[in-house]
Structures are given as structure tokens and as C-alpha cells.
């Protein structure tokens, strides 16, 4: 049949699928790897394109973000409905994202804790966090060991410490948990005097 335009083409394909279900399925099966590779490649291409585009037009990124936010606000049921429909996939995606972005996850988790504690402060960016760690050469300032660094609130949130770049220090997990809600001064003195084990 003569295919003149896109809507004709769509119509034609629809009819074709209905009358050639077996063939269409066989075709899909035979080209599975190929279409997957194609999808992956276009995804990468689109990602690179938008990255470059937003770099050149940062104000557009903000606009798109605002528009998306607005849309979700105007369509409140959508997110929940979508999530329910795609629960399993969303949870898989979440897990993968967390695994691939441990530092972001860490920052978001500390933000969540600060929010629950009702802490003030302007928060901090991933760049600020990366810079802080670099400043310490990846070494925990409390025990001088090179370890995986977690986010520590110098003045604890429970003592009205703010969730702010000025009140954040990298600390290894064990120092972070043994400092707990103690002030930095008390914690350091207690350590020096061997009241707290390293
Ligand atoms: Zn430490």
C-alpha cells in the first residue's frame, strides 16, 4: 500500500500487526538484541544531548524543572498512580540508583534526618561535600584513618545544630556513631583522655 505520511504509516503498521501477529512476534524475537542496543544507544545519545544542552542553557534546565514540578502539582494523582503501576520497576530503579550514587544517597539521607529533626540551615551541595572530603584527603579528622567518610553534624542536630555546610564534617562511620550527640569539644577531650575508645 502507498504510505504517504506518518499517520498512514501508523495505520498501516497497526493493520499489519493485527494480520501478521505471528510474523511480527518472530521479527521482534529475532531482532531483540538489535533493538535493545538501539534503545540503549539512543538513550545515551539523548542523555549526552541534554547534558550538553543544559550546560549551554542552564536557565532552561531550571524552567523544565519548574514546569515538571508544576505539572505534578496540578496532577497530584499521577505520581501515586504511576508508582503503584510501576512499583516493582521503581523499586529496582531506586536500588540501582542508590548503588550507583552512594554520595547522593548519603546527602539525601542526611537531609532527611535533618528535616525529621526540624533542623534549620541551608544544606549543602554534592560539590561542597566532595570538596570537604578532598580537603581532608579522605581521612577522618577524628581518628586520622583513611576510611569511607560519612556526613557528621559538628553541633549535633539534637542540640539545635544546623544542617548547613558550616556545620558538616566528614567522619568515618565509627567516629560518627561514637560521637553521636556529643559536642565536638567533649568528644575530642574524652578521646584524648581515653574515656572513649578509638
Ligand atoms: Zn574516624
Structure description:
The chain is mainly alpha-helical and 198 residues long. The protein has a domain at 101-192: Herpes Virus-1 (2-Layer Sandwich), CATH 3.30.40.220. Helix content is 66%, strand content 5%. The chain is built from 10 helices and 2 strands. The protein has helices spanning 6-19, 21-30, 32-56, 58-74, 76-85, 87-100, 102-116, 126-135, 173-179, 184-192; strands at 149-153, 168-172. Helix 3 packs across helix 4 (58-74). The longest helix has 25 residues, at 32-56. The protein is elongated and about 85 Å long. The N and C termini lie far apart (80 Å). 11% of the residues are buried. The model has no long low-confidence stretch (mean pLDDT 87). The chain binds zinc ion. Zinc ion is lined by residues 140, 142-143, 145, 171-172, 174-175.
Q: Could you spell the SSE succession in H and E letters?
A: HHHHHHHHEEHH
Q: What is the 3D shape?
A: elongated
Let me know the largest β-sheet. 2 strands, antiparallel
Q: What is the correct CATH architecture of the domain at 101-192? A: 2-Layer Sandwich
Helix content: 55-70%
Q: According to CATH, what is the topology of the domain at 101-192?
A: Herpes Virus-1
Tell me the name of the CATH class of the domain at 101-192.
Alpha Beta
Mean pLDDT: 87
Adjacency order of strands in the biggest sheet: 1-2
Radius of gyration: 26 Å
| Oligomeric category | single chain
Q: How many helices does DSSP assign?
A: 10
The total beta strand count reads 2
**Unreliable segments (pLDDT under 50, ≥5 consecutive)?**
none
> Kindly, what is the distance between the CA atoms of the first and last residues, rounded to a whole number of angstroms?
80 Å
**Which structural class is indicated by helix and strand composition?**
mainly alpha
**Percent in strands:** 5-15%
Q: What small-molecule ligands were found?
A: zinc ion
Amino acid at each position: 500500500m502507498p504510505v504517504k505520511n506518518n499517520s498512514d504509516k501508523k495505520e498501516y503498521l497497526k493493520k499489519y500487526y493485527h494480520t501478521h501477529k505471528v510474523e511480527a512476534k518472530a521479527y521482534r524475537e529475532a531482532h531483540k538484541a538489535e533493538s535493545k542496543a538501539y534503545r540503549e544507544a539512543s538513550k545515551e545519545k539523548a542523555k549526552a544531548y541534554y547534558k550538553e544542552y543544559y550546560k549551554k542553557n542552564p536557565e532552561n534546565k531550571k524552567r523544565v524543572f519548574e514546569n515538571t514540578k508544576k505539572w505534578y502539582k496540578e496532577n497530584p494523582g499521577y505520581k501515586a498512580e504511576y508508582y503503584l503501576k510501576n512499583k516493582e520497576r521503581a523499586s529496582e530503579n531506586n536500588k540501582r540508583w542508590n548503588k550507583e550514587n552512594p554520595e547522593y544517597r548519603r546527602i539525601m539521607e542526611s537531609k532527611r534526618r535533618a528535616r525529621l529533626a526540624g533542623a534549620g540551615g541551608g544544606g549543602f551541595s554534592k560539590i561542597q561535600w566532595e570538596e570537604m572530603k578532598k580537603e581532608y584527603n579522605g581521612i577522618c579528622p577524628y581518628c586520622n584513618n583513611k576510611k569511607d567518610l560519612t556526613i557528621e553534624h559538628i553541633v549535633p542536630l539534637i542540640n539545635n545544630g544546623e544542617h548547613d555546610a558550616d556545620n558538616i564534617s566528614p567522619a568515618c562511620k565509627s567516629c560518627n556513631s561514637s560521637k553521636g550527640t556529643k559536642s565536638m569539644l567533649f568528644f575530642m577531650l574524652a578521646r584524648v583522655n581515653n574515656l572513649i575508645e578509638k
